[in-house]
């Protein structure tokens, strides 16, 4: 287990977890080494089982059953194990050799036992470990060909009763449940390898149904249940490849499964079964999918299945038909169709669908992505007036700074910005008169003028209609060179309430304002006034040590 460094551990864990892991080195016990993995127990609030793996192409990964580790994080316990392994890297090969030797010795000892001695050993384990007993009971029923018994045992393994509290499996117990459920998957998979794939098909389908029944009763934040579902789907596919079941029956099951809630966990794709179904079965899949879609053209599962089959066959017109049957009111679906047509090399058809999306919008405004797409198409084809008209209409409906900037870009390209700007500002002044506010609280008019670097107009608007503190700060920064006295009054007003507050973020804002105030005094030829102001402020704020330190760092 080589090939990683302390820097790798730091990068995966982050500075905080890495530092905390350095304090856990004495808590690492029971370190074991294998082919590409290291495990140990790290003692903390509880005894946590920790494993590091080094694989290609994933690189170094780790798992820990502490709460932070189970959230998918590279925790301090993994850092402690990694650092311990690096400290012992010279002795690890010898430890690995001893571990291999112990395994070989155990194999040799077991091989030397008589049948009765082995039976006694197994019975002892069965008596002590219920999980071992359940696994062996399941294998025994499978070997007898007792499908009813195997199905009953699988139901027991997929039952949440052992782990549920008040009918629900909490996050802390979800992984243990999924590990138990995985035993059922292993038994079903073994049926295929032992020559009983038809039984594996039946039981894997039962398992999917049973798992779906308990899905809503488990906190699967880690996705463990999804992994079990994916494993069941893989077992079903392998069994079908081995058994070669009836194509029509399999096709009907696949479509029914894909259109049901059961597919949430398994995500089975009928196209993966194409070699099993053959032309006959795939024809049945297409016919059933088409029938289901015609019966429910707005159903998500029906649309997804039809779109998947149409794309696989390269039938872009069928893909368009699926989307066209359920068009969004804001033109978003028109854009999806346009992009599909673009991919197929049919750009003229794509443009017509996008323009149709704008024309057919009802009870709302067009999706911004559709507007952006059309404007880009218009610009690239030198239809600049059309791009301006579209941006102007969008701005009229959404009087935001972003829409103003987009209108400006389009109009400048068409060499008509001055006229468009006057119209846009007129709309914003009307909004300001009605006290319409922008996203951040102040009039959008002021944001637009500031974005245009029209400082005088912005200052006049702010003085006349009012502005929020954010806008006044930006305005003062832009105007400081030409209106230092006005900017100074803004900075002083913004600084006053900060003097009564605490916290490093407040101190940083106050320091920034003081630096701006100093610049204003210098421009006004009155540096002594600032020196007096700063001295008074420091005297009144001297107990705020972090503020004093920050002022010192900036020469204030």
Can you describe this structure?
This protein has 556 residues and is mainly alpha-helical. It is built from 28 helices and four strands. Strands 1-2-3-4 form a four-stranded antiparallel beta sheet. The two termini are 55 Å apart.
Q: Count the DSSP helices.
A: 28
> What radius of gyration results from the CA coordinates?
35 Å
Beta fraction: 5-15%
Low-confidence stretches are 436-441
How would you characterize the largest beta sheet?
4 strands, antiparallel
Between the first and last Cα atoms, what is the distance in angstroms?
55 Å
**Helix-residue proportion:** 55-70%
Coarse morphology: flat
Structural class: mainly alpha
């Amino acid at each position: 287990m080589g090939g990683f460094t302390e820097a790798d551990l730091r990068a995966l864990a982050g500075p905080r977890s890495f530092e905390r892991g350095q304090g856990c080195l004495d808590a690492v016990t029971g370190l074991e080494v294998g082919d590409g993995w290291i495990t140990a127990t790290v003692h903390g609030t509880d005894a946590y089982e920790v494993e590091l793996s080094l694989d290609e192409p994933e690189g170094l990964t780790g798992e820990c059953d502490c709460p932070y580790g189970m959230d998918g994080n590279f925790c301090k316990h993994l850092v402690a194990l990694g650092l311990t392994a690096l400290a012992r890297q010279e002795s690890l090969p010898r430890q690995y050799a001893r571990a291999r030797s112990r395994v070989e010795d155990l194999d040799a000892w077991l091989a030397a036992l008589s049948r009765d001695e082995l039976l006694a050993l197994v019975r002892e384990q069965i008596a002590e470990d219920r999980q071992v007993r359940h696994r062996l009971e399941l294998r025994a029923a499978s070997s007898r060909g007792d499908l009813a018994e195997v199905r009953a045992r699988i139901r027991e393994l997929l039952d949440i009763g052992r782990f549920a509290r008040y009918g629900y499996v909490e996050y802390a117990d979800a992984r243990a449940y999924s590990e138990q459920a995985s035993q059922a998957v292993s038994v079903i998979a073994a049926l295929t390898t032992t020559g009983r794939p038809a039984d594996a098909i039946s039981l894997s389908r039962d398992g999917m149904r049973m798992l779906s029944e308990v899905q809503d009763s488990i906190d699967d934040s880690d996705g463990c249940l999804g992994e079990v579902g994916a494993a069941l789907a893989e077992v079903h596919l392998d069994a079908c490849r081995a058994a070669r079941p009836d194509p029509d029956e399999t096709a009907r099951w696949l479509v029914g499964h894909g259109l049901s809630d059961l597919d949430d966990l398994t995500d089975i794709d009928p196209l993966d079964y194409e070699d099993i179904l053959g032309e006959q079965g795939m024809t049945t899949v297409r016919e059933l999918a088409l029938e289901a879609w015609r019966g429910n053209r707005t159903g998500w599962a029906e649309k997804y299945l039809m779109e998947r089959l149409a794309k696989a066959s390269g039938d872009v017109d069928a893909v368009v038909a699926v989307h066209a049957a359920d068009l969004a009111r804001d033109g978003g679906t028109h854009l999806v169709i346009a992009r599909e047509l673009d991919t197929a090399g049919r750009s003229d058809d794509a443009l017509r669908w996008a323009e149709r999306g704008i024309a057919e919008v009802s009870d709302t405004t067009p999706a911004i992505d559709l507007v952006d797409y059309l404007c880009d198409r218009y610009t690239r084809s030198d239809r600049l007036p059309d791009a301006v008209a579209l941006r102007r209409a969008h701005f009229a409906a959404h009087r935001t700074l972003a829409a103003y900037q987009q209108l400006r870009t389009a109009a400048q390209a068409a060499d008509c910005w001055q006229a468009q700007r006057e119209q846009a500002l007129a709309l914003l002044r009307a909004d300001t008169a009605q006290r319409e506010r922008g996203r951040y609280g102040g009039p959008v008019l002021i944001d637009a003028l500031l974005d245009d670097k029209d400082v005088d107009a912005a200052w006049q608007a702010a003085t006349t209609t009012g502005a929020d503190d954010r806008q006044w700060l930006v305005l003062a920064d832009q105007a400081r060179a030409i209106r230092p006295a006005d900017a100074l009054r803004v900075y002083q007003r913004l600084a006053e309430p900060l003097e009564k507050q605490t916290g490093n973020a407040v101190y940083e804002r106050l320091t920034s304002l003081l630096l701006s105030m100093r610049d204003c005094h210098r421009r006004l030829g009155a540096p002594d006034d600032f020196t007096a102001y700063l001295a008074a402020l420091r005297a009144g704020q001297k107990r705020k040590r972090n503020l004093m330190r920050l002022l010192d760092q900036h020469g204030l």
